[in-house]
């Protein structure tokens, strides 16, 4: 009996997914062997897991649909269903935890400042955990976010600097808080004022490029705000991906039904 359209479509889609899994797996193996920084070493295992998972699932769908292996196609559909449920849960969760928090507008400043308490408790706990934050600081250092920030605004006057539109990480990690009222010398060079500070971040500030405000609450808040924006974008992409998964799952169900009919036909039963 000729292959049904749904079987062919599932086979094509999974063949494409299989081809995509090869460079993903290769990238993970390359990171494990050649990764030099903490960030690169942190990414290798998840990338390898994703690559292997996509490869195995796509092979199951490809063989199940094209070779009429019903039990393998059934297993493929179960995994797809679980992925859809998981995807919906993660999307809802992402919108919930990123719904709270925003930067505070400062009078006469082009940039905003960020307060740790303005964001969801779940994100605060994950980011402020000492082990997690040390990895994040290492990643920020590797990205040279403050070094590039210093070079970009090095020749700015204090007025020009205050009018600059900074990212949340630049505002929180690369300069002292506005509460400190330090005297501007350069983008990462500020003169401390004597006295008692109401904001504990003021005492943590250091002009050393390796220190700056990387241990400040404002830096953690700025990172969370950046993470919050990224998660919202990922959640939107995830919705599109979920629609794709639901379409593939529906086509896969048709292919599974075709397999059962074909098996019944070959056994001498009437469809």
List keywords for this structure.
single chain, 271 residues, two-stranded antiparallel sheet, 10 helices, 4% strand, elongated
Describe the structure.
Helix content is 68%, strand content 4%. With 271 residues, it is mainly alpha-helical. Strands 1-2 form a two-stranded antiparallel sheet.
Output the structural class.
Answer: mainly alpha
Distance between the termini: 12 Å
Q: Please list the strands of the largest sheet in the order they lie side by side.
A: 1-2
Number of strands: 4
Provide the residue-averaged pLDDT. Answer: 86
What general outline do the C-alpha atoms trace?
Answer: elongated
Order of helices and strands: HHHEEHHHHHEEHH
Short recap of the structure:
This protein is mainly alpha-helical. It has helices spanning 5-34, 38-66, 70-97, 121-128, 130-143, 145-153, 158-162, 168-173, 201-204, 217-266, and strands at 104-105, 112-113, 183-186, 189-191. The protein is elongated and about 85 Å long.
In terms of topology, how is this protein built?
Elements: H1 5-34, H2 38-66, H3 70-97, E1 104-105, E2 112-113, H4 121-128, H5 130-143, H6 145-153, H7 158-162, H8 168-173, E3 183-186, E4 189-191, H9 201-204, H10 217-266
Antiparallel strand pairs: 1-2, 3-4
């Amino acid at each position: 009996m000729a292959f049904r359209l749904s079987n062919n479509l599932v086979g094509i889609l999974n063949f494409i997914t299989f081809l995509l899994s090869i460079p993903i797996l290769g990238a993970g193996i390359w990171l494990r062997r050649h990764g030099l920084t903490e960030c690169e070493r942190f990414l290798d295992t998840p990338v390898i897991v994703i690559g292997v998972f996509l490869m195995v699932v796509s092979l199951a769908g490809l063989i199940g649909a094209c070779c009429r292996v019903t039990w393998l196609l059934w297993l493929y559909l179960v995994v797809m269903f679980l992925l859809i449920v998981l995807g919906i849960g993660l999307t809802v969760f992402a919108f919930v935890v990123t719904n709270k928090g925003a930067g505070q507008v400062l009078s006469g400043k082009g940039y905003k400042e960020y307060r740790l308490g303005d964001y969801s408790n779940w994100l605060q706990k994950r980011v402020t955990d000492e082990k997690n934050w040390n990895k994040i600081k290492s990643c920020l250092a590797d990205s040279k976010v403050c070094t590039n920030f210093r070079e970009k605004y090095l020749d700015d006057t204090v007025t020009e600097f205050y009018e600059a539109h900074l990212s949340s990480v630049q505002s929180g990690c690369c300069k002292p808080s506005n509460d400190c009222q330090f005297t501007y010398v350069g983008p990462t060079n500020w003169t401390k004022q004597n006295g008692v500070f109401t904001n504990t971040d003021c005492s943590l500030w250091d002009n050393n490029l390796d220190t700056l405000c990387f241990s400040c609450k404002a830096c953690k808040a700025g990172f969370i705000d950046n993470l919050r924006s990224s998660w919202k974008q990922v959640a939107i992409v995830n919705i599109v991906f979920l629609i794709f998964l639901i379409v593939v799952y529906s086509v896969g169900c048709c292919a599974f039904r075709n397999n059962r009919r074909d098996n019944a036909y070959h056994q001498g039963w009437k469809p």
